[in-house]
Each structure stands twice: as C-alpha cells, then as structure tokens.
Amino acid sequence: MSLRRLVDGATALRFVLVGVAAAGLLFSLSWFFASRGMPPFAASVLAYAIAFVTAYSAQRNWTFGGEHGHGHALPRYFALQLGCALASGAVAHLSVACLHASPFAMSVLTVIGASAASYVGSVLWVFPEAGRPR
How crowded is residue 116: how many other Cβ atoms within 10 Å of its Cβ? Predict the structure, then answer.
C-alpha cells in the first residue's frame, strides 16, 4: 500500500525534504511576486509553475528512485499540480479579498493548502508503490 511510504524512514524523509524545499520556493516566489505588485492569483500560479519543475524532478528521481516512467508519472503529476496551482490561486485571492491578508499571510495560507494536497496526491496517485502499473 502506498501509505507505507509515509512511514518508511528514508523515503519519507526525502519526500519531506523535497516538499519543504518546494514549499519554500513556492512561498518565496509567491511573496516576492505579490509584494512587487503582481495580482495574488497570478503571483501564486507563476510561483507554482517554477516550483513544479524542480519538485517533479526531485520527487521522481530522488524520492522515488526514478522507478516511475515519465509516461505514467508526469501527466499525473501535472494534473495534480495544475489542480493545486488553481486552488492556491483561489486561496491567495480569497485570503486577500475576504481576509485582507498581507502578501506574507497570503503566502502562508497558500503554501499550507497546496503542500497538503500535493503530498497526499503524490503518494497515493502520482508515484504509487513499485510493482504497480506505470
């Protein structure tokens, strides 16, 4: 079962390290773009696009050992991250429009939501356990 990897020490640690690095990149870029006047939705989506390339490469090659073919993993990772990017844009917009959040608070809320969704989707759907269809 894919959930086993969540408690497997080495894999879980790599996943968390990549996730933290990607979240840090997402946070930094979304804050940077929004604090320079870019609309919150656009700032978050652009930051996600940049973090996407880095995170996919690291998750596939380092966290999961390159076991999953790009034909299987990349479309799923793209679909998951597209959903997360759009959701992060919505969270960013709503946090500013409804909560009057600062760029910093907007970025925190965006990263928390996007990271949680990405983590669960990656483990359960994008990079299933070895031995499952690629």
Answer: 12
